[in-house]
Amino acid sequence: MKEIINLPVSNIEEEEYHINMGPQHPSTHGVLRLLVSLQGEMVRSLKPHCGYIHRGIEKMCEKDTYPQVIHLTDRIDYLSAHINNHAVCLLVEKALEVDVPERVRYIRTIMDELARIQSHQLWWSSFGMDLGGLTCFFYGLRDREMILDIWEETTGSRFLQSYNCPGGVMQDIHPNFQKKVHAFLKTFKKKIKDYDRILSGNVIFENRSQGVGILSKEDAISYGVTGPSGRGSGWSCDVRKTEPYSMYGKVQFNEVLRYECDTYSRYMVRMQEMHESMNIIEQLIDNIPEGEHSAKMKAVIKLPAGEYFQRVESARGELGLFVVSDGNKTPYRMKFRTPSFSNLSVLDHISRGMKIADLVAIGASLDLVIPDIDR
Amino acid sequence: MNSFFKYFSDIFHGVKSLLIGMSVTGRYFFSPGQIVTQQYPENRKNLQMFERFKGEVIMLHDGNNQHRCNGCGICENNCPNGSIEVIPAKITGEDGKSKRVIDKHIYHLGMCTFCGLCVKNCPSNALGFGQEFEHAVFDRSKLTKVLNQPGSSIIKGVE
Fold first, then answer.
1. In chain B, which residues have their Cβ closer than 8 Å to the Cβ of A68?
2. Cβ of B54 and A157 within 8 Å?
3. Interface pTM (ipTM) of the complex?
4. Domain residue extents for chain B
5. How far apart are CA A296 and CA A94, in angstroms?
6. Is the confidence at residue A10, as pLDDT, over 60?
7. Neighbours of B155 (CB within 10 A)
8. Domain A53-374 classification at class level
């Protein structure tokens, strides 16, 4: 004990100190291990250690037929399960040149936007909780419950829906669907004002997020940080705008961009996106055309031999899906370009020189989902 | 002088923002409005799940203990994780021809991911989703279920 006290002060300052953040840490939201090397309280560098929840989904896809793959994509990024399903369906439909009914496009787009809203609600809840505001967690989950109920009524599941299938959706929407979505929009428009009052304008939150974790636009592009995190740095990277799929080409919405490049701007992008998502749903929900909920597909789906790529905008960024087919009913290779993996890669770069407490705020602002990283 | 004013305006704005936040929590404390928390074990008796809720895969039986499954095995082929095993049997029908029926329709609940492909692809609509969701058991082997009830037979006319 005495020797430690008698150490010269300068020596302590220069020494590097390593700590493991995770794999069991509440602010990593899963089993992510960050090996952080610190100088005092300052982060010198960090190394993410992935793989704790690696399930080999890409390999498992190789033995499954295309309709069977869909239930695995639910489990990549469980918070945007609908959107992941959508990517597989779009790819299969593009490869087979199937024209899906208009009704299916409407349903899929509405479901995607509901998924985006509930994902951002959960992100907001956990962001507040990470920074010490436990109230946010309860309020966010309370409002998210309405979307889960809508899903449970229509798809049968609350979380991992497997609702899309190649050619359409599994079941038609429930008769109560439109009524319930309207009720949700009405309620949530009031509740989201509370979100701003309780967290966005809070002085403690502002001081902990403004100017923290600066990610320049150039870095965002070179690291491939897509989604709300990239748009918080002013990079226009919304796949819904650049390569519209389903109904996104026909609805009016703004791509939310902010230019402060810090944690606060990434936060504000997501808050604004919830408004935009509600805007998209409002334009579609009353105009769902009548018709079939699924196109006629063959019993065994075989993709023609070749390479296919499809990207969609998931709640965290760009999800790319690359399939090599050899003409069989199962894919020869299926590769997912998941947004969280690229977003994690920038964490080391933007947290250098920050305090360890800021690392929690930065990590929360990137909205990492660990199964999305490890797959 | 400027920094002097900034110091006090920062304090003022900080306190104001905290009070705004506290007003929200205070409002919900005194008038919570809609309460979403369910008192789960207490409300078990009148807990209603949604009609389409995927609790478990069941085989639909009518009042005469008859089902519509002819043992074609399409559900088994469609299942991504091998949760379903169809063990067929051959019986001799009234007209003297041998007919394929099921002996056992085995369902491994522990492996099921509730993707719904078996129910969707069943050509004779023999399968459905049950509302039961309390699946916790002490022994894993209890999760393997035989879906066709003992003594059940196929409805006439379903091939």
1. 78, 80, 115, 117
2. yes
3. 0.84
4. 1-37, 46-154
5. 15
6. no
7. 16
8. mainly alpha
